[in-house]
Amino acid sequence: MNKKCGYIALLGRPNAGKSTFLNAFLGTKLAVVSNKPQTTRNKILGVYTEGDNQALLLDTPGIHKSHGLPKMNQVMNKVAWSVLGDADFVCYLIDVTQGWSEEDANWIEGILKKYNKKALLLATKTDKVKMEEVEQGMINIAEGFQALSEKIASNDEIKCQFIGDIPQAISSKRPEEIAKLRHFILDQLPQADWLYAEDDLTDRPQKFVCAEIIREQIFRQLGQELPYKIAVIIELFEHKKNVTDISATIVVDRDSHKGIVIGKNGSRIKSLGTDARISLERHLERKVFLELFVKVKLGWTENSNMLLEFASLQEPDDVK
Fold it and tell me: What pTM does this model have?
């Protein structure tokens, strides 16, 4: 039989449910998930192989207005848009509880005008509210998309074809809905040789995934206290006979943030270490010995070299 393989870009505003959808599609945890917007900083590739199909899902930072924000936010936007050049298919996600917004209109307008392949519009988090609210949100999104399409068609050529229901309701918490949508998306893949081995999950090294798992715990425990200017660097990653030794440094932007991470008498960093170790052991399926340290690097989110060093975040050259 002929093999199929293609890149699927996941786009949308911050906290639209892209990373949760990626994890659900893959059937395992790869991307950081929290209730805080802009948790995802990097383009993360998830590989899903089933039968003769290989889907390469590109989870992206949430597309947001970055004018006046740190350089990190501007780079995150460029990283998100850069995936369109690789994508064979696009899923644009909107939180059904938030509905259509001006930002969605701006981003989808760009997709409709510039992207000459197929796309899906997904209304996510349908499990979060009552059915009446889901229906209202769906109508709001559908009307917003229809008005935008009519406006563009009157002046410009629409290159992108959105297929299926507009929008398609989906909950990443409902496996049967994910399975149905997964099958639909796999059918859209072009015929092509696989780019990864059958058992590959991502192109990211294990150290990157482990750093993301630790960063997730920081967001979960300090989401209300600590801003986004944090990073995690894996200094040591060593498999031994019965345990994996991991040493990680948490990078913060201010001295005051260091105190928040450490906590009174070291209580917070101890709690972070415990929860991160449990998540790491679940991911690695073996015992983990974890050490955490904290250091301050002033202005790292404004420095291109430090963005690359601390957050693996590199500005694309060809995105305007």
Answer: 0.76
